[in-house]
């Protein structure tokens, strides 16, 4: 998997990143098929709905069990959007339900794409 | 028997597939394992499954039967530290296995779990983890501080980890399949951090309120218990009581080894807590409901103590404080460690006799514990002063301890527990309970008798002499009718004194008799006694022509007899004098006769003498004449 960060390198996002930058953290435990699926799913979702402005940090709890206690993770896989604010939920599961994932990480259900440097939005047909 | 070692390897390989279900069936007195394999695995796979399943062969899909070894199945146990529980379970909870504690709200489940962990640390040195799903850590610390558990201290010493796991459904969005590996990782890291041997989870049912996918939850719970067993930690899991099931969500399915239920019910307006071991695999256990208390030092399950009647009997005798009573009891008094029942109607002097006994024991420097169910301590001391017994100096010296409480204030179990606790702490040699009849309104016959039996048993095992007074509520008749309850209680006692007030002559007199005293030749007299300011004094018996008399009749008879005796003495003296006189007279007469006889004798003697001399003279004259005539006669 790419974009796998070491524990010491996870930056603490203290302030809101400008614009629609999506900072996500995916907690997994070992490379089980479910976790891999979840990663793939979130990648796809971010590609489509966050237009490239995203960062997914994958934390393997088996390697860093203290993080499980610190961040209070019970279910695997869990996806959280950083920074953690009130009303931001933990999204658990293989992330197969796109609608729920988008609701959970606060992304509007609109496909964004870049067209010659400008950002255009297309309202989805459904 | 559930071959958990088999299924563990299956689960690891099966991932999301259906698990192997194994059920034992009994056929021809042997245990068989019924196995049903999911279709995918009906082809024998040599590498892992056939090895794991061992005795089950699966050349064709469906059902296979193979006999299993029937052997002894004994669990190793780990002491829970909860007072009384280890006695009931024969050692404690099963080691390395989960135990389920279920009960309604407020039954004491959290306390049970926390005591298990805390005592494991303080008494057995087993580090422990307490995982709370519902209570906050600070609340836990505060609540348990009042019980004497300093949780902060234990956490600092790295013997205890307190963790709170929040499962909030509003915080969770479920999208697809998941598992609870995060929980396992957290538990694992906590256990590894301090090397915990014990873990308590309170309460797992919180998972059901957080996650909505029950199928996933159930399979994860099953996995959790196997994982805990794998880790070798002894776990206590609490669950909330369901309407018809032991727990609301059926946790008992997964916890097969030990299930305990706690109950809190109200009978006769008195609340009692009970504990019951529903299941304890591989161990002999009591299946009854055991009452327990939650006191300031935690849970204490009321012990059954040595109901096996194996306590040793002492040969030592102790005085009752009334020397003449000691005489009636085979000369020396009661046996040490015996139980004595003093029963009687109101005002017959039961408490006084008890106080005298206690006073005598204190004089011998023996500690006494006095339970009063009727009066206050100061009232009893004041009342006893009127008969010359001052108990206050003994209380000041610490030899005598009173415990006065209204019996209706608590349940019987609470009373028993308090009494046993006080006995433990104070370590008396003499125990007095005054009166036991006041316990009857609190419970029924069986309960009171059972409570007394346990108390007496406990006292005997510690060689404590027990005195129990009982108020008989009979009508004021002279005949003593035994009440059924008294008869039952009396069989627990080694000695039984009945006090009576005998009516007659317009007054009541105190009388007692020894109905029984095991192991000694006791008097069978109905003995009168008085309470004076010098204490209890037994009076001599006075038998008149009508039988034994008491009170003023006795005194009258006494004086009458005294008069009689005086008169007889006089009579005898007079007769003696008469005889003397007669003798005197006789002597005089004899003297006279003797004198007369002596005179006559003298006269005779003189006459005889004269006669003899005359004869001699005549003879001499004849001889002289013959001589002169010179002839013979």
Task: Give a summary of the structure in a few sentences.
Chain A has a single domain (18-121), classed as Glutaredoxin (3-Layer(aba) Sandwich). Chain A has 3 helices and 6 strands; from the N terminus they run E-H-E-H-E-E-H-E-E.
Task: Walk me through the structure.
- The complex is a heterodimer of chains A (126) and B (633).
- Chain A has 126 residues and is an alpha+beta fold.
- Chain A has a single domain, classed as Glutaredoxin (3-Layer(aba) Sandwich), CATH 3.40.30.
- Chain A is built from three helices and six strands.
- In chain A, the strands form two sheets. Chain A has a four-stranded mixed sheet, with helices on one face.
- Chain A starts with 21 loop residues before the first strand and ends with a strand.
- The relative contact order of chain A is 0.20.
- With 633 residues, chain B is of the alpha/beta class.
- In chain B, 38% of the residues lie in helices and 24% in strands.
- Chain B is rod-shaped, with a radius of gyration of 47 Å.
- Chain B is built from 17 helices and 28 strands.
- β4 of chain A pairs parallel with β9 of chain B.
């Amino acid at each position: 998997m790419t974009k796998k960060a070491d524990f010491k390198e996870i930056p603490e996002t203290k302030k809101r990143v400008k614009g629609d930058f999506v900072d996500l953290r995916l907690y997994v435990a070992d490379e089980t098929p479910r976790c891999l699926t979840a990663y793939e799913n979130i990648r796809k979702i971010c590609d489509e709905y966050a237009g490239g402005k995203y960062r997914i940090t994958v934390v393997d709890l088996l390697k860093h069990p203290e993080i499980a206690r610190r961040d209070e993770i019970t279910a695997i896989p869990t996806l959280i959007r950083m920074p953690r604010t009130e009303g931001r939920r933990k999204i658990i599961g293989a992330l197969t339900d796109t609608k729920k994932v988008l609701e959970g990480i606060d992304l509007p259900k609109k496909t964004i794409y870049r067209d010659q440097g400008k950002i255009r939005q297309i309202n989805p047909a459904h | 028997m559930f071959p958990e070692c088999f299924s563990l390897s299956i689960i690891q390989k099966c991932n999301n597939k259906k698990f192997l279900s194994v059920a034992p069936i009994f056929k021809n007195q042997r245990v068989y394992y019924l196995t049903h394999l999911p279709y995918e695995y009906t082809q024998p796979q040599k590498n892992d499954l056939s090895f794991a399943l061992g005795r089950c062969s699966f050349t064709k899909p469906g059902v296979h039967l193979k006999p299993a070894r029937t052997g002894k199945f004994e669990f190793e146990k780990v002491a829970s530290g909860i007072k009384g529980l280890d006695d009931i379970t024969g050692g404690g909870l099963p080691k390395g296995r989960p135990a389920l504690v279920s009960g309604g709200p407020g039954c004491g489940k959290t306390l049970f779990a926390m005591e298990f962990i805390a005592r494991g640390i303080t008494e057995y040195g087993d580090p422990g983890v307490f995982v709370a799903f519902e209570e906050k850590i600070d609340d836990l610390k505060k609540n348990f501080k009042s019980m004497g558990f300093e949780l902060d201290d234990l956490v600092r010493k790295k013997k205890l980890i307190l963790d709170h796991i929040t499962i909030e459904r509003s915080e969770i969005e479920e999208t697809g399949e998941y598992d609870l590996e995060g929980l396992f990782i957290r538990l694992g890291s906590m256990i590894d951090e301090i090397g915990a041997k014990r873990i308590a989870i309170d309460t797992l049912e919180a998972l059901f309120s957080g996650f909505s996918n029950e199928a996933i939850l159930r399979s994860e719970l099953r996995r959790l218990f196997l994982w805990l067993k794998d880790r070798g930690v002894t776990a206590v899991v609490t669950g909330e009581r369901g309407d018809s099931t032991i727990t609301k969500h059926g946790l008992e399915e997964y916890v097969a080894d030990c299930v305990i239920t706690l109950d809190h019910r109200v009978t006769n307006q008195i609340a009692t807590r009970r504990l019951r071991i529903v299941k304890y695999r591989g161990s002999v256990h009591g299946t009854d409901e055991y009452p327990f208390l939650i006191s300031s030092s935690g849970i204490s399950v009321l012990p059954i103590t040595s109901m096996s009647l194996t306590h040793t009997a002492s040969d030592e005798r102790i005085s009752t404080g009334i020397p003449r009573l000691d005489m009636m009891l085979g000369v020396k008094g009661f046996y040490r460690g015996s139980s004595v029942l003093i029963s009687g109607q109101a005002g017959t002097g039961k408490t006084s006799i008890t106080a005298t006994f206690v006073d005598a024991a204190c004089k011998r420097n023996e500690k006494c514990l006095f339970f009063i169910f009727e009066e206050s301590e100061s009232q009893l001391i004041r009342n006893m002063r009127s008969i010359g017994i001052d108990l206050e100096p003994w209380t000041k010296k610490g030899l005598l301890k009173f415990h006065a409480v209204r019996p209706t204030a608590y349940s019987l179990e609470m009373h028993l527990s308090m009494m046993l606790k006080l006995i433990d702490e104070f370590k008396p040699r003499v125990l007095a309970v005054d009166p036991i009849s006041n316990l009857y309104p609190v419970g029924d016959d069986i309960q009171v008798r059972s409570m007394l039996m346990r108390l007496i048993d406990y006292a005997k095992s510690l060689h404590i002499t027990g005195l129990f007074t009982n108020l008989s509520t009979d009508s004021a008749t002279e005949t003593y009718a035994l009440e059924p309850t008294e008869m039952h209680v009396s069989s627990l006692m080694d000695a039984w004194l009945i006090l009576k007030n005998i009516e007659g002559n317009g007054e009541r007199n105190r009388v007692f008799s020894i109905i029984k005293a095991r192991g000694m030749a006791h008097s069978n007299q109905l003995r009168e006694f008085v309470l004076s300011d010098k204490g209890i004094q037994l009076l001599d018996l006075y038998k008149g022509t009508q039988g034994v008399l008491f009170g003023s009749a006795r005194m009258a008879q006494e004086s009458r007899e005294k008069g009689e005796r005086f008169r007889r003495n006089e009579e005898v003296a007079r007769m003696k004098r008469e005889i003397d006189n007669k003798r005197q007279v006789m002597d005089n007469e004899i003297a006279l006769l003797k004198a007369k006889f002596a005179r006559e004798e003298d006269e005779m003697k003189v006459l005889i003498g004269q006669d003899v001399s005359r004869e001699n003279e005549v003879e001499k004259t004849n001889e002289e004449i013959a001589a002169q005539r010179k002839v013979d006669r």
